[in-house]
Amino acid sequence: GGGESAVDESMMTGESMPVSKAEGSGVVCGTVNMHGVMTVKVTKVGGETALAQIIRLVQDAQASKCEVQKLADVLSGHFVKVVLLIAVLTFVTWVSISHQGMVETVYFGTELHPTVFALVFAMTVLVIACPCALGLATPTAIMVGTGVGAKEGVLIKGGSALEIANKVTAIVFDKTGTLTEGKPSVSSHWFSADEDAEALLWLLIGAAEANSEHPLGRAVLQRAKAGVSGGAWPPAP
Known about the structure:
Elements: E1 2-3, E2 5-8, H1 10-13, E3 19-21, E4 32-35, E5 38-39, H2 50-63, H3 67-99, H4 114-128, H5 132-151, H6 159-163, H7 195-208, H8 215-227
Antiparallel strand pairs: 1-5, 2-3, 2-4
Helix pairs in contact: 2-5, 3-4, 3-5, 7-8
């Protein structure tokens, strides 16, 4: 493509400062053109775009298995066999004592067969001891955690990253805008002049930055407008 401009790529990099683009520079879908006009040539579409790769990363993270989930799957496999064995033993035990008259009919009535009565106990064991929670808790937690993180702009690379997150003792932020507003501004200034001269200086500074598209220049211009009533600037030379 062609043209020159500055592009806000914070949605990709977290960096709030616009990045200068000229002819031959690459741009990413979803970023915002701040100033100027550019002619852009599309080189990647559909699943090849950066946004599609981010979506795929989140989906892979939700589908990945951490060590705790692998252990839970193994335990669930053995636990099911144990529960089935206990249910069978429960059924056989209650069938035996029911047919031997060791259980009073008042417990299962005259219409309920002793075998069906024993089956109720066996089914109770299966329902109560079902390992559904053991097998579903971990993947559900991973899916919810990665989903909420992606919604807040935090990409989590799988359940293993979540698993060791509780061991984190320090977090280092290296991107402007993560903990700040991400917009430059004039925080302080000093003039060795009286108030009238200071207003004139702000007027001159504002005139110099009036046509600037640089983020720092726009910040200086905003401060200059606040320093001079009216904010009417002559065109920059």
